Amino acid sequence: MNDNISNANRILIIDLLYLGDLIFVTPFIRNLREKFPTAQIDMVVNSNFFDIMEENSYLDQVYAYNKNWSIKKSWKFARRLSQNNYELGLNLHGNWRTALLLKVINPAYTIGFGGKGRGIWLNQELLPAKNMHMVDVYLNFLAEIGFESIDNQGVELEINQEASKNMLNFLQEHDIKDKDRVVGLNTGGSWPTKQWTKEGFAQLGDRLEEELQAKVIFFGGPGDVERVNEIVAMMKTKPIIATGKTTLKELAALAARCNLFISGDTGPVHVAAAVGIPTIALFGPSDEQKYRPYGEKHKVIENGIDCRPCGHHHCPLEHHKCLEEISADDVLRAVMSKQ
After folding, report:
1. What is the pLDDT of residues 66-102, one digit of tens each?
2. Distances (CA, A) of 185 to 54, 153, 254, 272, 322
């Protein structure tokens, strides 16, 4: 490890990726803090997910960057951070936006993911390791810059006490007892192709309650409300709907009460994994080798169709069989295997 890294007392991490990606970064942050126990370690994150990272006790300061800001406002934000005189800047995102922001923030020594010319302003450019989970890609970053001892204890997320109290009240209002088996269902997805069928979720929700006597809670943000309402209208049973009713901090607190969490490949399933809850993740276009919930408690369902993982936001073959051909029976079998 060179002296520019080992002697750093003010460190900045920048990563403007999405919720699941930020969960994948938590082991990186933990290992960085273990190596630099007294350093100032700050992080710039996507403002949409600031609430989740704000709870991370390994970070001293978390700064929210809004990707809709104008160039002028972005410049002012970066110039303000430059006054912190960071000695080490770590770019885990590696796109042009984060490259430009880090250049203006101007840490004394910078390391990050580059490629396609984006490492032009870095002192040390790295390329993401291939054919491994993103958690391991980020940990490999540390190995490449000279970390000799790296723990691989998995992702983690601290639960806000006020959010926990709010969700306890929510559960009591819906007559959830400590003895109840609670299953969380998350129906959304950042891409249309990541969403399992509405009919599948409706059938699964009914069968979880009728056959396993589970209490079913639907999760999701405001953008998922209409979809969940359509699913619930197809159901015979009456699930609990938390969709659009929780903050990110409350989502984590409510997920922590579940016995099992079922979702497509989207942020909330990684939040559930980070608070220690077993998950079942339905994978369509995205690559489970890189993006599956991290750890041994989790199961991935994918149907083995030749065209996946394609990485497309809309099915280029216009059939979406990768998820449409996964049945409620398939998911229920995975649930039973976790009994």
Report:
1. 999 999 999 999 999 999 999 999 999 988 999 999 9
2. 25, 26, 12, 11, 19
pTM exceeds 0.90 for this model? yes
User: Other C-beta atoms within 10 Å of 116: how many?
Assistant: 8
Residue ranges making up the domain that contains 199: 161-337
Residue 7 exposure: Cα atoms within 13 Å on the Cβ side: 5
Upper half-sphere CA count for residue 154 (Cβ side, 13 Å)? 17
Are 318 and 198 in the same domain? yes
Q: Are residues 202 and 315 in the same domain?
A: yes
Question: What phi and psi, each to the nearest 5 degrees, are found at residue 325?
Answer: -95, 10
CA distance linking residue 164 with residue 232, whole number of Å? 26
The Cα 320–Cα 323 span in angstroms is: 6
**Sheet strands (E) in 173-274:** 182-186, 215-219, 240-241, 260-264
pLDDT tens figures, 139-191:
999 999 999 989 989 999 999 999 999 999 999 999 999 999 999 999 987 76
Residues 187, 137, single domain; the answer is no
Q: Are 167 and 287 in contact (CB under 8 A)?
A: no
Q: Has residue 59 been placed in a domain?
A: yes
Which contacts of 298-305 are long-range, i.e. CB under 8 A and separated by 24 or more positions? 298/273, 299/334, 299/337, 299/338, 301/326, 301/330, 301/331, 301/334, 302/326, 303/330
Residue 132 near residue 54, CB atoms below 8 Å: no
> CA torsion 247→250→251→253, rounded to 10°?
170
Q: Is residue 96 part of a domain?
A: yes
Q: How many CB atoms lie within 10 A of CB 6?
A: 12
Last-in-domain residue among 119, 144, 169: 144
**DSSP class of 190:** S
Q: Does 315 have pLDDT greater than 90?
A: no
pLDDT given at position 52? 93
Cβ atoms of residues 283 and 292 within 8 Å: yes
Q: How confident is the model over 311-334, as a mean pLDDT?
A: 80
